[in-house]
From TrEMBL, chain A:
Alphabetical list of InterPro entries matching this protein: Asp/Orn_carbamoyltranf_P-bd (IPR006132), Asp/Orn_carbamoylTrfase (IPR006130), Asp/Orn_carbamoylTrfase_sf (IPR036901), Asp_carbamoyltransf (IPR002082), Asp_carbamoyltransf_Asp/Orn-bd (IPR006131)
GO terms for biological process, alphabetical: 'de novo' pyrimidine nucleobase biosynthetic process; 'de novo' UMP biosynthetic process; amino acid metabolic process
Keywords of the record: Pyrimidine biosynthesis, Transferase
Organism: Cryobacterium tagatosivorans
Keyword Transferase: yes
Stored Pfam families: OTCace, OTCace_N
Binding annotation for L-aspartate: 82, 174, 229
Amino-acid positions noted as binding carbamoyl phosphate in the UniProt annotation, renumbered to this chain: 54-55, 104, 134, 137, 270-271
Domain Aspartate/ornithine carbamoyltransferase Asp/Orn-binding: 160-308
Protein's name in the database: Aspartate carbamoyltransferase
Length: 316, 180
């Protein structure tokens, strides 16, 4: 694997290999020495043009557990705020000898530009670009679902026949897009539930079902229900009248949570708006995987870094 | 052309002898942890474990597992990306006698990686090495304690080692080189 930019281009076999390696990486967390020498001497740059503490520290922990050196570069207070272009930033990082670049950018497609421009010869990981994709989030979600369903026998398994309902701001969500492609590739059936204003205008190319009624979706008893965060920073236009109305129509409140199938898994990519898209009872229950998702995120990112940064670069 | 040097019966006899040697050098089955290196080392480790249990039916403390070394190799940035295999270390190895088991001992680099990996799981009191075939050409100061068959070979020759569990048939053969 040369870069990890999108889940749309990942094959089923590639995805399963990555998830299996993540299982090996997860085992490391249970050992006496929680560190591997695998990427010793490699440099990973976290290039964050958008604030994201969770994703950045998850990548940082993953790179450090593999013994890579980590450089954190955030746009705020850097040369970027003085007007430096992506090209100059990339060439600066190349001159410093970065082997891998983890990039988060507010513009969809920025990681692809970085990967194809020739400005820098490093493995590029997309850590979220605009409203496009967030592949490692989808991979950690798939990993979490697989572990919940198959436990210790997860290795080599796909998600054939698993039903996943994704609820909330699908329009702006890169998590929703990355999950759609990956989960579908792994054999799961994805359904979206959202207010009509928060669904994309044209969904004809998406292999999923669409609905507006969360109650009906819950009564259908999905294996997994994934609540998306309402992103206050993207709510400039009036997509819904007010937060209370959104919570009433599309929030996983206590009453809906009680009606959910008893073995359904409740997921949320974090950070949560408690009381808005998810109630505390649902978020803190045993069926919630919110904290597992965080822990699994480190394992999955270790696997991605390993696949990108080990091996002969010419060969991959 | 491939020349068979060990048949299935030879392999079984070699593993039985190695099992006896392990018990002899350890003065019994106490504190033994047998760890196979994937893929075929795991199969051999399991067979040695079963043989030891047959020889010493009272030995309940012997444990068996696997130790993958992929993430500890020193050639990760020189070859194609390798996919790791699962590691399963049964319980603590602190103070135990660990016997590493591999199929073919060659450069010694796999064993170097295994020793590093082992150190991250705990601190055994003794580490020993058992291999089915030692073909020479060491690049590091490493030697095996228990050897099924010494097979002096040239670097141009290939050693094929098949086991029933992984390959369907079972033999050790040598091929290539100058008409061997």
């Amino acid at each position: 694997m040369r870069h990890l930019l999108s889940t749309k281009t990942i094959s089923r076999d590639e995805a399963i290999v990555l998830l299996d390696i993540a299982e090996d990486m997860a085992d490391v967390a249970g050992r006496e020495v929680k560190k591997l020498p695998t990427l010793r001497g490699k440099t990973v740059v976290n290039l964050f043009f958008e604030d994201s503490t969770r994703t950045r520290i998850s990548f940082e922990a993953a790179a450090k557990r593999l013994s890579a050196d980590v450089i954190n570069f955030s746009a705020k207070g850097s040369s970027v705020s003085k007007g430096e272009s992506l090209k100059d930033t990339a060439q600066t990082l190349a001159a410093m000898g970065a082997d891998g670049v983890v990039i988060r950018h507010h513009a969809s497609g920025a990681p692809l530009v970085l990967a194809e421009s020739g400005w820098i010869d490093a493995g590029i990981i997309n850590a979220g670009d605009g409203t496009h994709e967030h592949p490692t989030q989808a991979l950690l979600d798939a990993f979490t679902i697989r572990r919940r369903l198959h436990g210790a026998a997860s290795r080599g398994r796909d998600l054939d026949g698993v039903t996943v309902t994704i609820v909330g701001d699908v329009l702006h969500s890169r998590v929703a897009r990355s999950n759609l492609w990956l989960l579908t590739t792994l054999g799961a059936q994805v359904g979206f539930v959202a207010p009509p204003t928060l669904l994309p205008a044209d969904t004809s190319a998406w292999p999923a079902t669409f609905g507006f009624d969360l109650d009906a979706a819950i009564d259908a008893g999905p294996d997994v229900i994934m609540m998306l965060r309402i992103q206050a920073e993207r709510m400039s236009a009036s997509f819904f009248p007010n937060p209370r109305e959104y919570a009433r129509g599309w929030g996983l409140d206590d009453e809906r949570f009680a009606r959910l199938r008893a073995d359904s898994i409740v997921m949320h990519p974090g950070p949560m708006n408690r009381g808005l898209e998810i109630s505390s009872a649902a978020a803190d229950s045993a069926r919630s995987t919110v904290l597992e998702q965080v822990a699994n995120g480190v394992s999955v990112r270790m696997a991605a870094l390993y696949l990108l940064l080990s091996g002969d670069r010419e060969d991959s | 052309m491939a020349r068979t040097v060990l048949t299935q019966a030879d392999i079984t006899r070699a593993l039985t002898r190695i099992s006896h040697e392990i018990l002899e050098s350890n003065r019994g089955p106490d504190n033994l942890v047998i760890l196979g290196i994937p893929t075929r080392g795991v199969v051999l480790a399991r067979r040695i474990f079963e043989t030891i249990q047959r020889i010493e039916p009272s030995a309940t403390d012997v444990r068996v597992g696997s130790l993958d070394v992929t993430l500890y190799r020193d050639d990760l940035s020189r070859t194609r990306t390798r996919t790791p295999a699962p590691t399963q270390v049964p319980g603590s190895i602190d103070g135990k006698t660990v016997v590493l088991v591999d199929d073919v001992l060659y450069s010694g680099r796999t064993i170097r990686a295994a020793l590093d990996a082992l150190g991250d799981h705990g601190r055994p009191s003794i580490v020993r090495l058992a291999v089915l075939v030692d073909r020479g050409h060491r690049e590091l100061p490493i030697r095996a304690d228990f050897v099924g068959k010494n097979l002096p070979s040239s670097t141009e020759e290939r050693i094929n080692l098949h086991l029933t569990e992984t390959d369907g048939d079972e033999f050790v053969s040598i091929e290539g080189g100058n008409g061997a």
